[in-house]
Amino acid sequence: MQVKSVRSTKLLVVAAVVVIAFGTFMYLARTGSIYVPYISPPYAKILFLTAKSTPSEIVGEVLKKYNIDKQHHLDVTIEAVAPGDLERRYFDGEVPIISMGVASAAEGYTKGVPTTIIGPALLMNYDIVVPENSSIQNLSDLKGKILGVLPQATAAYSTLITVLKSAGINPQTDLTLSYGATPDINKRLLDGEIDAGTVSYPTGAALFATGKVRSIAHLETVWESSENGLPLPLAVIVVRNDWYAAHKQEAQEFVDAWTQAETLVIQHPEVIDGLTDYLNSYGLNSPNTLALLHENVPKTLLATWGKPEADAVTRFFDRSKQYGFIPQNVAPPTVVY
Under 8 Å CB-to-CB from 292, ≥6 apart: which residues? Predict the structure, then answer.
């Protein structure tokens, strides 16, 4: 019994010493008196592609600048690539998750890449723009004119054609289409080589800031007028089904991070001003240009995702099939919300 009593006493003393030592350590750590190394939590790595020269590029910059991905246990690398190359790299299996057009996502099944739409990205952010002194006042006046558009392989092209046909204009017969990248369209519009051009923010801000052009139609508004108020998701977040089956948690965390970054831009567009390298690379750093970005970029972002947006995806899919951009035997894409 004596042995047990001594042993118990020793254990109590040791316990007291441990408690005191731990309490002292925690106090010193809180006050900064000793250095405690920070061990970062493990982050799931994701490579995400989005189209260059689109508002999604701004969202990606904001997501990284403010470490929004880390808040969702992710380490996201975002690449902004040329439209067309975006789709190729996805269907070639280089990346499992990207921002892409609805029609392109539907093509996944025909290319052996079953795809699911899991989140929002952009509304239809293109305007039909003409020189300030042009006689063209509305879409009807465009008939017989030269319209600068993005290449046929892009989601912006198929979406443009679908919107115009929904509004009663057949671009292939009513217009002469001239293809080119966004900077090329902007330059040819100012040089008078084309009568009108499809222009979008953010890069369109520099063009509008010249005061030499004006918009005759905002294509999101044109679509909603023709389709009973349904929005038009120009781009959505899509995933390869094989990757999604094994990474649903990471996929949902990414959608949450992306919509958080979009909401930040919508509510506080002045955060765009902090993207110095991005703004300088596109020549978007003048006060007039920044004011246009503050006003217009938030309007292009689709930050909500539920049944109305899923219905909008289905409506656009049906119209794209009706106008020949999607084969008749292709089923509607799976939408998760």
Answer: 201, 205, 208, 209
How distant, in Å, are the alpha carbons of 90, 128, 199, 216 from that of 131? 37, 11, 12, 10
Say if residue 118 is in the same domain as residue 130.
no
| Residues near 177 by beta carbon (within 8 Å), at least 6 away in sequence | 146, 147, 149, 171
- Is residue 109 located within the same domain as residue 255? yes
Question: Do 180 and 329 belong to one domain?
Answer: no
Name every residue whose Cβ is closer than 8 Å to that of residue 130 and which is 6 or more positions away in sequence.
Answer: 136, 189, 195, 196, 197, 213, 214, 216
The pLDDT, as a whole number, for residue 172 is 86
Same domain for 134 and 68: no
pLDDT, tens only, 170-201: 998 999 999 998 889 999 999 999 999 999 99
Residue 33 lies in a domain: no
Q: Can you give the residue range of the structural domain that contains 135?
A: 126-226
The domain total for the chain is 2
Task: Write the CATH number for 282.
Answer: 3.40.190.10
Selected residue with higher pLDDT from 136 and 3: 136
Name the one residue in this structure whose structure tokens are 């690539």. Answer: 81
Q: Which residues in 313-324 are b (16+ Cβ under 10 Å) and which e?
A: bebbbebbbebe
> Between the CA of residue 102 and those of 34, 146, 229, 313, 335, what are the distances in Å?
55, 27, 18, 7, 10
